[in-house]
């Protein structure tokens, strides 16, 4: 069988370590897993980076994206070797839609009031703006459901998202041509769960699972996340083609 490589894409205010509990379980089960860093500079640029990363992988790829990572896989997932998409508390954008527009449909979220904005230099241009979560409220808003000790580490090591990414429209929507699966975190205080539900329903995902989990479902409920990823993996895994007649001596 040709089993896809699982590529896990982190979101804003986090890095690849946010997938660690899921990554460990998948590796222990014998799966091939890669967790690339996302620059978090712009939706278009981040998606191009991840698409390039994916296209250099030999064989099929199953993409899983958390939060902002869902928007990234929506665009990067058009890569030819991507065979499926898994959204984990993620943004399933429509073609021509931005994060801000989708979020704005269901604005009831605790995140906006707990964001911190910081300038960063851009060579030859006006400074950009980094967005991060207030360290003091990080546990409550972004990392509810995990231990205080874990949340403190994540808070001081979070990877900001450039503000420009919120307004960039997705040029494509991979879910139009690739099968998808979705996880809704019912106890999400970062993204309104209705944003997740709406995006998944509109995308016509094959299966949507709702779990009693906070935004960081991969840390709080890794077994449930792994179960959805493995279900998707089983459905997109295809038999290897038999060699052509006369190919073997």
Our measurement of the CA-to-CA distance between the termini, rounded to an integer number of angstroms, reads 22 Å
CATH homology superfamily: Alpha/Beta hydrolase fold, catalytic domain
Chain-averaged pLDDT? 94
**Helix share bin:** 25-40%
Radius of gyration: 18 Å
Q: What is the CATH architecture annotation?
A: 3-Layer(aba) Sandwich
Summarize the biggest pleated sheet: 6 strands, parallel
How many helical elements? 9
| Number of E-type strands | 9
Strand content range: 15-25%
Q: Can you tell me the CATH topology?
A: Rossmann fold
Structural class designation: alpha/beta
CATH class: Alpha Beta
Low-confidence stretches: 241-249
Q: State the order of secondary-structure elements, H for helix, E for strand.
A: EHEHEHEHEEHHEEHEHH
Q: Tell me, briefly, the overall form.
A: globular
Describe the structure.
The protein has 249 residues and is an alpha/beta fold. It has one domain (5-109, 160-236): 3-Layer(aba) Sandwich (Rossmann fold), CATH 3.40.50.1820. Helices cover 33% and strands 20% of the residues. It has 9 helices and 9 strands. A 6-stranded parallel β-sheet has the order 2-1-3-4-8-9, sandwiched between helices. A hairpin with a 2-residue loop joins strand 5 (115-122) and strand 6 (125-133). The longest helix is centred in the C-terminal third of the chain and has 15 residues, at 222-236. Mean pLDDT is 94; it is low at 241-249.
């Amino acid at each position: 069988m040709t089993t896809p490589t699982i590529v896990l894409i982190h979101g804003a205010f986090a890095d690849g370590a946010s997938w660690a509990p899921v990554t460990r379980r998948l590796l222990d089960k014998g799966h091939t897993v890669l967790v690339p860093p996302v620059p978090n500079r712009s939706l278009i640029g981040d998606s191009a980076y991840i698409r390039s990363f994916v296209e250099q992988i030999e064989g099929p790829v199953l993409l899983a994206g958390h939060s902002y990572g869902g928007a990234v896989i929506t665009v990067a997932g058009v890569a030819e070797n991507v065979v499926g998409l898994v959204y984990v508390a993620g943004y399933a954008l429509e073609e021509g839609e931005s994060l801000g527009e989708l979020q704005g449909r269901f604005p009831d979220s605790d995140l906006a009031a707990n964001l911190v904005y910081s300038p960063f230099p851009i060579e030859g241009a006006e400074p950009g703006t980094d967005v991060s979560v207030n360290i003091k409220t990080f546990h409550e808003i972004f990392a509810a459901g995990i231990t205080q000790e874990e949340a403190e580490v994540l808070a001081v090591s979070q990877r900001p998202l450039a503000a420009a990414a919120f307004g960039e429209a997705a040029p494509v929507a991979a879910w139009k041509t690739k099968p998808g699966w979705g996880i809704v975190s019912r106890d999400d205080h970062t993204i309104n769960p209705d944003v997740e539900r709406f995006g998944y329903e509109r995308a016509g995902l094959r299966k949507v699972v709702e779990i009693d989990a906070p935004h960081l479902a991969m840390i709080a409920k890794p077994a449930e996340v792994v179960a959805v990823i493995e279900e998707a993996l089983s459905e997109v895994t295809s038999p290897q083609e038999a060699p052509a007649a006369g190919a073997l001596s």
